[in-house]
Amino acid sequence: MKLFPVFHTLFSSAVFGSIAAAQYASGQWSLVQEGHSGVSALELAVVSETTAMILDKVEHNPLQTEGHIAWAAELNLVTRTVRPLNPTSNTWCGTGSFLSNGTMVSSGGHRVVITGNAEVICRNGLAAIRLFTPCEDGDCDIFENDDVRRMGGLRWYPSSVRLDDGSAMIWGIIDMPNITDPTFEFYPPKNIHGQNGTPVFSQFLNDSLNANHFPILTLLPDGNLFVAANTMAMIFDWKTNQEIMRLPDIPNGVHISSPLSAGATLLPLTPENNYTPEIMICGGSTYSDDLANWVIGVPSSQQPTSDQCIRMVLNEEGIANGWEVEHMPEPRIMPELILLPDGRVTIVNGAKTGIAGYGVAGDEIGESDCDNPALTPVLYNPHAPAGERFTQDGLPTSEIPRMYHSTATLTPNASILLAGSNPNTDVETRRYHTEYRLEWLSPPYMEHTRPTYTGLPVTFDYNSTVTLDVDIDRDAQNVSVVIMDFGFATHGVHMDQRSVELVSELSNDGTQLTVTGPPSPTIYPPGPTYVFVLVDGVPSFGHKILIGTGAQPPLDEGALNK
Ligand SMILES: [Cu+2]
């Protein structure tokens, strides 16, 4: 911690760079329903300061494009209106990560299963690579050309993670009768591990079958990956293809990946905690993943889910200490864990009973395999004493179930967007129907006068400094700068969500804030970020920049052309 220089004698004890000690903004939470997504928000990612991308599966959505139904849209976060986007393959249950140059790579999907006019123009998305370079002028669209860009593997329910070299690594997993493909690959492709641009077998994915869809992936500050799926977790060195360590299993037999989905996030990395990673995973289910339990008609939408939240500090001492087990106020499957700029975690969406999916439960509701939607968010304060970290006090209850195929994300103005839900094959009007209504969940800090700043460059390189002109309350006690990756949300999994506090120092007159870029690409991988200046728990608007130089990730032409 650095003490505030002489700014005002009364406030000379103001503290910088200290989320841990921050006072959280007081006031009321609010929940507003406004806008429609046009397509159901199965996948969701903020792509610019004013826009988000929404990907659905091909179904009979109200939004139309070029004479057929749309299954992708760009949402304007300000006007809360949508325009259609035009992928050419089915985005049904794929993943997405941004690259170092700011381009998003969406990967995986499946064939079209509905009947109707979409079929003739939509390809199977199992090997799809879709590239999207965000814009704010309504003029960008998804680039997709199967002839020049496609994956080496077939991937349905994959996850992805942006690496410290600015490329994306895509893990898993098609899991259909007689086909499993427990592999990973890279985009752009690499000539690595004896595989020139083609998939690399993963022993971990093989070991963690069956319920290992959408594995949890996190880049750690030492450059390794944390990987968790089903009841297992490991530390993995992607550069050498070595499993560094198999971590203790998820406690108490809880499965944590789809279709027994938990939510997960890396807790904020800060100078105070020396950028020590700590992972948190909440919810899931103890329902057995034995294949006999997944026969149509066998599972129940009333199957209990888990209220377990677990944390582990991912260093030698933390791993030796094992998982810290806590309990949410309610059990949940498919929760979304959304990091707030103030370092707390908001747990939203999901269901209290059942499993993720549709069309399998013997007592399905409509087609939903889950029931009892979790309608009230939970706020988690990782810095509070054990036993006092969860609260639902003052958090607004929604009337909209957000269960299978729902999503949520933080937005640049620091509110949370809740979207989607459709546990059905096609657009459905019965309970639980296809959901297009959007909700905006605002933490109490949204009520306060927000700090503002100017002077952000387009790119911000490691260990470089920028000086921002800031307009903050002269009574400020606590000023810090946080960069956030809002990630890519689908199925309760949040690819690449990350919060890193930067070292910063306020000028004596309180008008300029000198900020030092992140220490290394393993602490924040090169690529898009949103920069928040926090003053006494109240964040500014998060302006978007690229961390690093904005260069594209390494390109191996040989691997690319395989
Ligand atoms: Cu899905």
Brief synopsis:
The protein is mainly β.
Report, as a whole number of angstroms, the end-to-end distance: 51 Å
User: What's the main sheet like?
Assistant: 8 strands, mixed
> Helix tally?
3
CATH class of the largest domain: Mainly Beta
Instruction: Count all strands and give the number.
Output: 49
Overall structural class, as computed from helix and strand content, comes to mainly beta
Heterogens: copper (II) ion
Pfam families: Glyoxal_oxid_N, GO-like_E_set
Protein name: Copper radical oxidase
Keywords: Signal
Domain Glyoxal oxidase N-terminal: 66-445
Walk me through this protein's architecture.
- The protein is 3% helix and 37% strand.
- It is an all-beta fold and 562 residues long.
- The chain has 2 domains: 2-22 and 451-547, Immunoglobulin-like (Sandwich); 30-446, Galactose oxidase/kelch, beta-propeller (Methylamine Dehydrogenase, Chain H, 7 Propeller), CATH 2.130.10.80.
- The strands form 13 sheets. Strands 1, 2, 39, 41, 44, 47, 48 and 49 form an 8-stranded mixed β-sheet that branches. Strands 9-8-5-4-42-43 form a 6-stranded antiparallel β-sheet, with no helix packed on it. A 4-stranded antiparallel β-sheet has the order 3-37-36-35, with no helix packed on it.
- It is globular.
- The model is unreliable at 1-21 (pLDDT under 50).
- It binds copper (II) ion.
- Residues 1-27 form the signal peptide.
- Keywords: Signal.
- Residues 450-545 form the Galactose oxidase-like Early set domain.
Give keywords.
6-stranded antiparallel β-sheet, Copper radical oxidase, Methylamine Dehydrogenase, Chain H, 562 residues, Immunoglobulin-like, GO-like_E_set, signal, binds copper (II) ion, globular, 49 strands, disordered N terminus, 8-stranded mixed β-sheet, 2 domains, Ig_E-set, mainly beta, Gal_Oxase/kelch_b-propeller
